[in-house]
Amino acid sequence: MGLRVLVAGTFDIIHEGHIKMLWEAKKLAGKNGELVVVVARDDNVKRFKGRDPILRESSRVYIVKNLKPVDRAFLGEKDPLESVLKIRPDIIVLGYDQWADENWLREELRKRGLDVKVLRLPRFGDSSTSSIIERVLKQFCLTE
Fold first, then answer.
1. Averaged pLDDT for residues 44-66
2. What domain count does the chain have?
3. Which domain does 98 fall in, by range?
4. Where would I find the beta strands (DSSP E) of the chain?
């Protein structure tokens, strides 16, 4: 039997790094495992990243649901830990640039009765949503 692996994120502009991370997370689930993705609510994107998302939450969750390695995807709760408590994963995979500290997250979940393995994956590829936004602005804005 496989494991339930949880990935959470904004997934604002899907790029190579997102896809490679999701495939790595899916591998961790093993045969018959499940990759569950929690997509951040618009309010949480603003709260954690200090900016509005480019795409609204309904679009982002629709896109993520339709990615090949993803078994289930849904919008997260206002408190990100609530989503984890509902899913009860075996493993949580963090991206290289996510805000949560692994030890803090393990401890907070342990306090709530969950013993979950937390892994941080490295950066995949040279793209990030921020770098894509910067390139678009440079190329298409009429600023000097």
1. 94
2. 1
3. 4-140
4. 4-9, 34-39, 72-75, 91-94, 117-120
